């Protein structure tokens, strides 16, 4: 007598895949926490231990991180379509293992830059893959809710670790205590990914509406890149908004702690200000992601970009802890309107057969904003001062919101057949 293995039928939906979905939420919280080990400490390490007085020199680690993460995002989409999601996720965690060691032992700034190259590659592979896996599981509905939960977990992880490392740095010094916490997060994330995370690629391959007309919807890597970057009105609008959003996030990461510290704020308050932005950003996404499923993507993206621009102006004009606290919270709220909505918008337009690659292209452009932000902010701050750098980035953010208002289609979030046939050049 032969026995056939019973294979459970694939199911789509948040509730239907809740245990695995929540596991991936936890994994992405650890991905964010791994990044959060640097947010408060590294800008101060640059000035206090390595004597990097020029802003453009201190921001080299963000430039390295942004370029590495942007490239890894693109590779993550391509590799996860070809080889599966889980191997890419595990590889990302393995690459993160040396990062805390390099940061603790670094005798020169070059070691810190090298650590951030590894961290960027790791973040690109792990974060991109958790995004794609959640899209696979939830199917064509409730993408905004899924992305809100994913991004909330990641950025609450960033915020919580930024506060914790600020405290550890104040009590025990800038090294090694803050980075030992990062090492613990990396070890836990790798263990969960290897032992408990399941592959989700088949969910995308057999998604309702996704397997139909495969010859028509099968696209080369070049076609996906051109569609997502330039040709499709909605995809290209989303890509440029993501780039500008992370441009101002690079500014917040690299220069704001220095701005607050040079104003005379104690390290504990600098840690709070550094953390409140990703904390509001993370928590508010639990609401904004779901709202984008009901209201549509475009309005939230435009409003969020303009809100960020206003917050940056208020930060440039601020001079004390209370004023900066309110402005940083407003910046987090504006970012929360944009971040999960952009990701959900990519999932709306891209066909399941090339959705992972489209997400990779979008995240290539988005995280390229870190590198551009480091260059723009560093050079401008050296030449004109911190406040001028913040104002210039605020103007770019407002212009990005206007471009989305003029170019992006309005109803791509609706589950219609047109969602699989992008165009609208």
UniProtKB/TrEMBL annotation:
Cellular localisation: Cell membrane
PANTHER family recorded: INTEGRAL MEMBRANE TRANSPORT PROTEIN, RESISTANCE PROTEIN MDTM, PUTATIVE-RELATED-RELATED
Domain of life: Bacteria
Keywords: Cell membrane, Membrane, Transmembrane, Transmembrane helix, Transport
Annotated SUPFAM superfamilies: MFS general substrate transporter
Topological type in the membrane: Multi-pass membrane protein
Coiled-coil regions listed in the entry: none
Gene3D superfamilies hit by this protein: MFS general substrate transporter like domains
Residue spans crossing the bilayer: 21-38, 58-76, 88-105, 111-132, 153-173, 179-197, 299-318, 324-343, 364-381, 387-406
One Pfam entry name: MFS_1
Annotated CDD domains: MFS_MdtG_SLC18_like (cd17325)
Protein name: MFS family permease
Domain Major facilitator superfamily (MFS) profile: 20-412
Cross-referenced PROSITE patterns: MFS, SUGAR_TRANSPORT_1
